[in-house]
Specification:
Helix content: 25-40%
Strand content: 25-35%
Organism: Chryseobacterium panacisoli
Radius of gyration: 25 Å
Keywords: Membrane, Plasmid, Transmembrane, Transmembrane helix
Structural class: alpha+beta
Protein name: RING-type E3 ubiquitin transferase
Number of strands: 15
CATH topology of the largest domain: OB fold (Dihydrolipoamide Acetyltransferase, E2P)
Shape: elongated
């Protein structure tokens, strides 16, 4: 499987907009009415206090909207969790073609060596983070590299065995197996290993009459998680959703009061 590297496009976009605004302001101070949008800049400069009051209200509102969009933006893990909550668990022997959820123990075929501890595994999710320290010695981390690798494996339940082609697989809600720090960097890996009981969502297909699981083309989902972890998630996720909804309503009410 391919390597995933951190691409902070959103951060670069925000910094670019701030830089453009600053450059425009400098040029406007120098050239005044020769600059495009001169009338608007002149109006803001003459009524700075009024616009500053509006900005105090609008900036938190825009930040809240931006944060909401980021949280709600669909990704492979969110699609996996949404499908998992609505799909029944299929038995491997009777799995039908289409998007399915299966549960069983993993069977390793060709082992991988994990990058942090060199453990034998079926697959791993690996990250490298820069470690920064402030004046008080508090550490902060920023991801500079992320990578998922996984070999073909099988899943087995009490009815049979099925092969999984792992191209595009996501390891969902799995904690780090190993962590190591040295040279100003932190290295973390999450492993899936032979014999683990897992739950998988993907597309059931067949090749020469033999069924197998692959990534779904429509939902773009092939995800795996621990059976015990997903049980806890399904139990508490509705409470988390209600809490987030309540917080959103409260923030909107506060913003409405401030605008009045």
């Amino acid at each position: 499987m391919g390597v995933k590297k951190e691409r902070p496009y959103i951060v670069y976009s925000i910094l670019g907009i701030i830089a453009l605004c600053f450059i425009y302001f400098i040029l406007w101070v120098i050239f005044k009415d020769k600059m495009p949008l001169h009338e608007y800049a002149y109006e803001i400069a003459n009524n700075y206090d009024s616009y500053a009051e509006k900005a105090i209200i609008l900036i938190p509102l825009l930040f809240f909207v931006f944060l909401f969009i980021i949280v709600m933006k669909p990704n492979a893990s969110k699609r996996f969790l949404r499908l998992q909550s609505s799909l029944p668990t299929s038995k491997i022997h009777s799995v039908a073609k289409g998007v399915v959820e299966i549960e069983g123990n993993l069977i390793m075929k060709n082992p991988l060596s994990s990058p942090v501890k060199n453990e034998e595994c079926i697959g791993y999710y690996y990250t490298i983070e820069n470690i920064s320290r402030d004046s008080d010695g508090k550490e902060t981390y920023s991801t500079i590299h992320r990578e998922t690798q996984c070999n073909v494996f099988q899943m087995k339940d009490d009815t049979g065995v099925i092969e999984v082609e792992p191209e595009g697989i996501e390891l969902v809600l799995l904690g780090e197996t190993n962590i190591s720090s040295h040279g100003g960097k932190r290295y973390k890996e999450t492993l899936i290993k032979d014999g683990q009981k897992m739950l998988l969502v993907g597309y059931a297909d067949s090749k020469n009459g033999t069924p197998f699981i692959r990534k779904d083309d429509y939902y773009r989902v092939l995800g795996i998680t621990s059976s015990s972890g997903i049980t806890v998630w399904n139990k508490y996720q509705p409470l988390l959703r209600s809490f987030m909804f309540t917080c959103s309503i409260i923030v909107l009410i506060i913003i409405y009061i401030l605008v009045q």
